[in-house]
Amino acid sequence: MSSPSPLQIWLIEDNTTFRRTLARVLESQDGFECTEGFARCEHALAATERGLKPDIILLDVGLPGMSGLHALPLLREKLPDTKILILTVFDDDDKIFRAICAGAAGYLLKTASPEEITAAIREVVGGGAPMNGRIARRVLEMFSQFGRPTKDYDLSEREIEILNHLTTGQLKKEIAQALGLSIHTIDSHLRKIYIKLEVNTRSEAVAKALKEKLV
Amino acid sequence: MSSPSPLQIWLIEDNTTFRRTLARVLESQDGFECTEGFARCEHALAATERGLKPDIILLDVGLPGMSGLHALPLLREKLPDTKILILTVFDDDDKIFRAICAGAAGYLLKTASPEEITAAIREVVGGGAPMNGRIARRVLEMFSQFGRPTKDYDLSEREIEILNHLTTGQLKKEIAQALGLSIHTIDSHLRKIYIKLEVNTRSEAVAKALKEKLV
DNA sequence: CGGGAAATCACGCAAACGCGTGGTTTTACA
DNA sequence: TGTAAAACCACGCGTTTGCGTGATTTCCCG
Predict the structure, then answer these.
(1) What residues are paired with B87 via a beta bridge?
(2) Integer Cα distance of A95 and A111 in angstroms
(3) Is residue B204 within 8 angstroms of chain A, CB to CB?
(4) Tag placement on chain B: N or C end, fewer CB within 10 Å?
């Protein structure tokens, strides 16, 4: 099933021993072909200039010269169809966050066994996003931070509705028209919103509403 | 290793057949104890009032009465230490997003085999966050949307600086004072910002800046 | 070296805004 | 059934804004 066109894999990893060992492991897998190994991102980027396009890249983030995190968006631009898996020892939230935002297709730790790494590659090919369990947990936790309404300002439905119109830049007059109300009513609601949000200007209210996900 | 205190699992799932089958499968696992099965979230919430606290909950989202997504935050509040796994047929971005934001510890699909479900439970106990591969991919894609500067409006440094002041609700006068400039200069910058962002009001500019992560 | 973009400053006007202060009607709940 | 909160409406005042139309200076780059 895989013999006609083996999966082309690149390794970007400065530790030569680890890179070669991993390359050997991957090569031994049916359908895998470890076509290139680079010690620096710059070399990999140069290779893309020569028109080479792997299916998968295993990318270390702690590299001499250009870091993997810096290279990621560049690689993604050059190789939009290539799935890039992070393979690193770092598991801090900032690196995870930046890697994912930059378009990493998965995040593995170097503590992973060869079996786990090959399984991850197969998973990413199958449309998945392999992650170390702890990393996945962190991702979900970070994600859940986005949905918090933070504080409760006890805004009424009408007030939230008007707050929504504010974020579209509408004038009091326009909001009144849109809701079929008098401009004085909008003004009245607006004041209560200001009091509840503890702001004094429209833009401050909009900023607070958006920053704290009230709308 | 697990005999002293088996893992207590609740199922919240309206399909009686599926729930009972799954309960039987889980019970057959070493160290698992399927203590309760509910057809409605309301029943589960009532059970928490009686002081019951499972280790794991498998929660369907498409339920009669209160939906699983509505119940999730309530369950999380009652049972802060319980890991809640979503087990559903739905895989649309909105449901995934809401479930994760509400604190789901994992997201499984009902197409999962019994083996996959038991593996997922063991994974969540081990500090992981089991997800269906496709779901995990979606999560990373959604996540990566947060880091985008979206479009490039070609704002100058000064303009971005002033845009920042705008999001704090400052008046032109105040910004001028803060930057040691004339109010006319701020006005001038403001107009260019409006032109570049294609807006006509301050709040619209603030909204656009925050929504598109320009600041 | 010269052109263009960015940054700075200036004046005036109509429109919109924030705010004080008043009111009535509708809705919700005890 | 009463009462409080929300929603609705109104007028006026002083301030701020958005915009048209100008100008000068600084700095980068071809």
Answers:
(1) B108
(2) 17
(3) yes
(4) N
Judge contact between A86 and A35, C-beta under 8 A: no
Cβ-count burial of A35 within 10 angstroms (0-12 exposed, 13-18 middle, 19+ buried)? middle
Instruction: Give me the residue from B147, B166, B204 closest to A168, CB to CB.
Output: B204
Identify nearest nucleotide to residue B182 by CA to C1′ distance. Answer: C9
Q: Is the pLDDT of residue B69 over 90?
A: yes
Residues B43 and B140 in one domain: yes
Q: Are strands B83-88 and A56-59 parallel, antiparallel or unpaired?
A: unpaired
Determine whether B36 is exposed, middle or buried from the number of CB atoms within 10 Å of its CB (0-12, 13-18, 19+).
middle
* B100·A140 Cβ contact <8 A: yes
- Do residue B133 and residue A147 have CB atoms under 8 angstroms apart? no
Give, for B139, the enclosing helix (H) or strand (E): helix B133-145
User: Which among A126, A137, A207 has CB closest to B133?
Assistant: A126
On the CB side of A77, CA atoms within 13 Å amount to 7
The tokens of A25 are what?
């492991």
What torsion do the CA atoms of A184, A190, A191, A192 make, to the nearest 10 degrees?
120
Which pLDDT tens digit goes with each residue over B151-207? Answer: 889 999 999 999 999 999 999 999 999 999 999 999 999 999 999 999 999 999 999
Chain-chain contact of B130 with A140 (C-beta, under 8 angstroms): no
Range 176-195, chain A: CB under 7 Å to any strand C atom = 187-188, 190-191, 194
> What share of residues in chain B are helix, strand, coil (percent, to 5)?
50, 15, 35
Domain assignment of residue B2, yes or no: no
Are B78 and B119 members of one domain?
yes
- Counted domains in chain B: 2
Phi and psi dihedrals of B195, rounded to 5?
A: -65, -50
Q: How far is A185 from chain B (nearest CA, A)?
A: 20
pTM: 0.78
pLDDT at B2: 42
Q: What is the tens place of the pLDDT at every residue in A57-70?
A: 999 999 998 999 99
> Do A142 and A38 sit in the same domain of this protein?
yes
Sign of the dihedral defined by the CA atoms of residues A167, A173, A174, A178, in that order: positive
* CATH code assigned at A16: 3.40.50.2300
CA dist B186 and B165 (Å) reads: 11
How far is B191 from B156, CA to CA, in rounded Å? 13
